[in-house]
Write a structure and sequence with these properties.
7-stranded parallel sheet; alpha/beta; single chain; 6-stranded parallel sheet; Rossmann fold; 443 residues
């Protein structure tokens, strides 16, 4: 088990800073992340952060800078702005919008480049009214499915503007790495170096940053922010209502270590075939299987392909032993996880939320962050490589965990550690909020 950096030895911060609510001035905080696009792990992170910022700074005015501002504003009742303002250049070309004509393509590209000053002007106007920009959690500082001149370029741009606007720039429990692209690495390294505060969600991320070169002497390691979800949203685990043991099987459209669609079709097909084989074996062994997703927009493809693979094996998809009710919100995902007896998952937050709910969990890891999380909870032996897992060995482990599931829920070191993570995050929220309140009081 790899522990987080010790927080207990630090001085009591209440002795160093004034009470959080001692400053009557309103604090303006912008929260940055890829929210509003249907990724349930990202959404549960945002829910956790907004809830705790309101708890520690009830007078704060919160703004979200995210991928889909309209969706986020509607869901959370706060002001929201897009990470990247996009001028609809293609609308100017009508039926020629997708023309392959070299001249038209060149004009379209030139027009897009010419709108860049406008988008950064809009970003400047937003940050000018903020006291702090919090870049929170998530995997934005790795290159899984992310390109240098995509999100990494956007993050660097917002960080530079935050410094111009004299906003406090804070990286809070972020995941970092791996980053294979040299330009991405420069962008991420520069953005982190600009931070007034940095914490990482695991030791892997901090060690990775140290390897890139920036000074991390005062940086901290705190748990992933999803461990601080409000307690009411984590209701006690109900019975599955099934006479069979219910295995929650998390799906992910896996195309390879970098998440690139263009070169990972063979990897994806192998993954679908492996999951279909595992599903059939589980049902043949008397288990019921509940399919779980983690992304509302992107996980439907894998559901459809899994169905086709099962039917090709002669397995009826309408079998009562197979439950396929895709979640559309964080609350629905939590409810479905609660109705399982054991979870096999790949998506980071499906694994994490299973742990928080006290579920025995087996991980099919596609990224170092998943392996790191399992290691932190002493579950490394139940962590398998997504590209090379043995179904028979995995099912044997499921049988072992299933036999002990009555003693697993709520009483194990795993459950106690999850509670300690919540307390550690309370420390971080209090530290950040006190610091912000103090800075505003001095202005």
């Amino acid at each position: 088990m790899i522990p987080l950096l010790s927080i207990k030895a630090e001085p009591n911060i209440s002795e160093c800073l004034p009470p959080v609510n001692s400053n009557p001035q309103r604090v303006h905080i912008a929260v940055f992340g890829t929210f509003g696009v249907g990724n349930l792990g990202n959404e549960c992170t945002l829910q956790a952060v907004l809830s705790n910022l309101r708890r520690f700074l009830p007078n704060a005015e919160l703004t979200c800078i995210c991928s889909d501002a309209e969706e986020a504003a509607a869901d959370y009742g706060i002001s929201a702005f897009p990470i990247r303002y996009v001028v609809p250049v293609d609308q100017l070309f009508g039926s020629y919008a997708h023309s392959k004509n070299i001249f038209i393509k060149g004009v379209r590209k030139l027009l897009r480049l010419s709108t860049s000053p406008y988008r950064w002007y809009k970003a400047f106007r937003i940050l000018k009214s903020q006291d702090a920009l919090l870049i929170i959690g998530l995997g934005m500082l790795g290159d899984f499915g992310i390109s240098a001149f995509g999100l990494h370029y956007d993050i660097l741009g917002w960080c530079l503007l935050a410094k111009v606007c004299r906003c406090k720039l804070e990286f809070v429990s972020v995941g970092v790495g791996p980053i294979r692209d040299r330009v991405s690495k420069v962008f991420v390294k520069t953005a982190l170096a600009l931070g007034d505060y940095r914490s990482y969600r695991d030791t892997f991320s901090k060690d990775y940053v140290q390897g890139m070169g920036p000074s991390i002497k005062n940086d901290r390691v705190y748990p992933d922010l999803a461990f601080s979800l409000p307690r009411p949203s984590l209701s006690p685990s109900p019975s599955s209502g099934s006479k069979r043991t219910v295995i929650g099987l998390g799906l992910i459209p896996y195309y390879g270590r970098r998440g690139r669609l263009e070169d990972g079709d063979r990897t994806y097909r192998k993954y679908v075939d492996s999951v279909a084989g595992l599903t059939c074996k589980l049902m043949d062994d008397g288990f019921a299987v509940r399919l779980l997703i983690g992304d509302v927009r992107y996980d439907h493809e894998i559901r459809a392909d899994l169905r086709a693979s099962l039917e090709a094996r002669g397995q009826q998809y309408v079998d009562a032993r197979l439950i396929d009710e895709p979640a559309s919100s964080v609350s629905e995902l939590l409810s479905q996880l609660a109705m399982t007896d054991l979870v096999v998952a790949s998506r980071f937050h499906n694994v994490l939320l299973s742990i928080v709910l006290g579920k025995p969990v087996v991980a099919l890891s596609y990224h170092e962050k998943v392996a790191s999380l399992m290691d932190e909870f002493g579950l490394s032996e139940f962590c398998h490589d997504i590209e090379d897992f043995d179904s028979d060995k995995l099912i044997a482990q499921i049988a072992i965990l299933g036999d002990g599931k009555a003693n697993f829920k709520g009483q194990t070191p795993t459950a106690r550690q999850a509670e300690n993570y919540r307390k550690a995050l309370d420390d971080q929220y209090e530290r950040i909020c006190r610091s912000l309140a103090t800075c505003i009081a001095r202005q």
